[in-house]
Amino acid sequence: MPNPSLNTDAHRRAFSPPVGSLIARMALAFLLATAQLPAAFALDNAPTSVVQELVPFSTDEGLARLARSTAKVDFPALANQFEPQSNATFCGPTSAAIVLNAVRGRAADLPRDRSRLRSEDLQYVPSNFDPTIPRFTQDNVIIKGQKTRAQVLGEPLAINGKQIQDFGYQVRQLEEMLRANGATTRLTIVDDNKVEQDIRNDLVENLKRRGNYAIVAYKRDAVGQRGGGHISPLGAYDAESDSFLVLDVNPASAGWVWMPTATLIKGMRTFDTVENRGYILVQSP
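RESULT FIELD:
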């Protein structure tokens, strides 16, 4: 049975908020819903890790960065010669092959790689015809270097008096291999004494000069990616975002990305077997 005392005007006045108070509450709710929250509270929008700093090249922003870049003369040649690595340990040889082909172009003395042809492939090919194309490949660049293919793929070798497995290439080993293939190189190890601005200037100046290329060795998990050590060429630099375009040679793991300078340096300033990683500047002899 209803309680008649709840129907009095006095009760309604006691429990109904004034119109002005109601409007004030609605205004406050509107302000809270539309206001720009401080960074500490805007968790959905804040860059919570370096992963969100990496901008894929294929996005509108990624393409815009290349369009406005003034340090990108290397990009067309590298893109034209680009190929993905064929196995997990060949990021170094692949980067070397891409850059050497860009450096040497259509030189008359480019090597030929016959390792990809099977005997049955040549069954109907005239004996005086070579179907291979003269170019550096991630297989034939290894041949002239000191590190053997078997060692790249895990055969133990002596380092500091110990027999260890040393998959892939350390950055100094890669520089030696590039030199063995006729390139002129300059290696920079990114240790704690290397200043960020000096590294930035060095790489940017290289990317502004035709015929000069940059290869970086970095640790993936230090830049927000999954994986360990990795090697790839640089394609451009965007001053507005202070980021470098890394032409990742393993698209199965990560695509081409714009990587902030500080993030790239963090990845290079990591230890690899005997010393830190770093970068190699490459040019024709």
